[in-house]
Amino acid sequence: MKVRWTGGVRRLAMAALAAAVLVPGAAHAQGKITGKVSLSGAAPTAPKLKMDADPVCAAAHPDGAAAEDLIVGSGGGVEYVFVYLKEGVKGTFPAKTDPAVIDQKGCLYGPRVVGLQVGQPLKFTNSDQTLHNVHGMPKVNAPWNFAMPKFVKQKENKDLTKPEVMIHVKCDVHPWMSGYVGVLEHPFFAVTDKDGNFTIEGVPPGEYTVEAWQEKLGAQTAKVKVDAGAPAKQDFTFKPS
Amino acid sequence: MSTRKPRNNALLALMLAVASFLSISAIVRTALGAEIVVAEEEQLRHGKVLYASYCSGCHGVNGDGQGPAAAMLIVKPRDFTSGLFKFRSTPNGTLPTDADLMRTITRGVNRTSMPEWSLLPERERMALVQYVKSFYPGFAESGPGRPIFIPAPPATLGSPESIARGRQLYEMLECGRCHGPNGLGDGPSAATLAPDSWGNPQKPFNFTKGALKSGAAPEDVYRTFMTGLNGTAMPSYADVFDEPDGENVKPGDAWNLVSYVLSLRTPSRPGTQVASEEGAAVNAAYRGDLARAGYTAPLPEPAQAGANKESKP
After folding, report:
1. What global pTM score does this model have?
2. Neighbours of A137 (CB within 10 A)
3. CATH of region A29-238
4. Contact call for B93 and A159, based on CB within 8 A
5. What is the ipTM for the molecules in this complex?
6. Are strands A122-126 and A100-105 parallel, antiparallel or unpaired?
7. Which residues of A touch B240 (CB under 8 A)?
8. Which is deepest, A125, A213, B48, B156, by most CB within 10 Å?
9. What structural domains and CATH numbers belong to chain B?
10. pLDDT tens-digit readout, B102-158
């Protein structure tokens, strides 16, 4: 049978090609990067936040809430560090359509740090019975500042169209509320858990520059080689600033 | 062969006609295009000259807000290179339209040193608009946001019922967190506001005192809380009113909030323009500012008293 190079066939072929490029190989061909981010020396004690300007916030934390700009857990592990592939990623990766979510709860951002892909929506939910304004202050993407009165339970920003590490997000009503959003062209990022551990999944084999970013400690990079199937390990240790 | 010639000739003639039509129209198009380009360049050249004499003293020759007078001013002149503009009919985070910039330049910014330039001919203000835009590449790249639709104010605007409903909305939407429970600018969050995006102190407006920065027509207030003021804490409430949930917020409620906000003004005349005595000594402030900074470029006389008086941010 002679295949005529019609529009339809061309589209099919393109789609197959795109699928081959966009969904690079099968799962078995991927590697991953795991590690731990820690702070050397004695863990600092986080100061208590003063929330009494808004009784709704204060009531959510009967024992007081601790500042979250540097959370050091057991074994010196640092929470909320954004770890991502900074250089070396090849190919294009379609953005997830389900949003990255930040909940405003007890007048804190949960989580304080998120990553998402260019074009992926960023959703803010409001679990509090009080007003928050969500004020994003990017340098590359378009800024935003919308009010979320207590009865407005969710709002999506779909305008994060350019890669940017990191975007500062804050609430002007509650000055201690501060968060960071990393926008990347690929899905290879992670945020450390309360023990400082992270895993970046599904990384195609290759050599990469990995960066660990923390709002107070700054950023560190490391060269990491990823092989198919075997997890690569990379720890980061920050010194107290 | 010979019988077919005329037809070929006819075809050729037709093709020639089409071709020459195309090329003529191409010529016309380039001519028009070139004219537009020339007009734009001319406008920018004109704008640059006007800007150098009228605006650079405050906004700086490079548009970075660092003119010689800037250090003396309480409310800092806008840094046009930041791409952040407060007074817009366009959604939060987007750039203003030409009409927005025209309005600001024509009216000035009340309570700040930004003069009104209503005495400059419209052509010159248009040239200034284009020149101001040239400081931020985003205007050429993505252009302004899409202006919001502001419906005509209802007949009930300013009525006691509308004001009462507006008061409920003011409480429900917690404007008072910043602007204070009674609109005095003294809400619990007022004292803790971080500096604005340009690093300068910011203060929620005291609705009972002084002129509104970008005008006190009902539409001005409507526009402000719908789109917010970029670079400041003042957020956009567009979502709340654009899709009223019917339970907390009902269609048309935005005008009730306008009624309430304007009713706080003294003298309490909702919907009226800025009270004139407020600005009786206007422009003196910015002239004083400029003189202190040794800036002597000519300024047009204000068209009307009542515009600009600088107060604390």
Report:
1. 0.83
2. 15
3. 2.60.40.420
4. yes
5. 0.83
6. parallel
7. 147, 149, 152
8. A213
9. 160-276 (1.10.760.10)
10. 999 999 999 999 999 999 999 999 999 999 999 999 999 999 999 999 999 999 999
